[in-house]
Structures are given as structure tokens and as C-alpha cells.
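Collaborator request, handled under Task 6.
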Amino acid sequence: MSEILLVLTTLPDADSAAALGARLVEERLAACVNILAPCASVYRWQGRVETATEVPLLIKTSAARYAALETAILAEHPYELPEIVAVPVQRGLPGYLDWVSTETAPG
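C-alpha cells returned to the collaborator:
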């Protein structure tokens, strides 16, 4: 089984989140993308405190596919500097982790 990652990003709206999620799964860069409910984000950007409504995505992928996944997110993401954070999955249901690995294998 390959190393599995949970990748987090946010998009400005549901349509862009759905489009990116579909692309990532169709291209086998992600086994699954959860599109969560919109949330309020507060952050500092270019010296000012900003607020925005964003749509979080939870992306399950393999470490082997991370570079291609990051490239795909950057290609479609409307933000100048998008959040892309990858967290290694330390434990999980073995069958599920195997499924993520299988679904993200280049085909």
C-alpha cells in the first residue's frame, strides 16, 4: 500500500469546487473529494485582515500522485495563492486505504 494523503484546499464557490473535484477524480489524481458546506474564513492578505466565504475540499490521494494533483489544482484555482495543504494519513481502515491507492494509480 502506498502512502495516503489528505489534501485540503478551499474554493470561492460551489460551482468551482464541484468542477475541480470532478476533474481530480476523473483524472485519477484523487480517489474521493468531499465538498463541504461553505464556511467563513478570516485571514491576513497583503497586510490587511480579510474575510470570505469559501467551500472546503477534502481530497484523498496517494503521495505518488501529489505533484500532479498540486499542478491540477494550481491550473484551475482562481486564487493567486491557493491553500494546498497535504497531511499524511497515519492510520485508517486498511481496505479504504488500499482503495485510495488503487483508484489513484496511473491508468
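The cover message to the collaborator said: "Residues 33 and 99 are 14 Å apart (CA to CA). The longest strand covers residues 48-62. Please let us know whether this matches your experimental observations."
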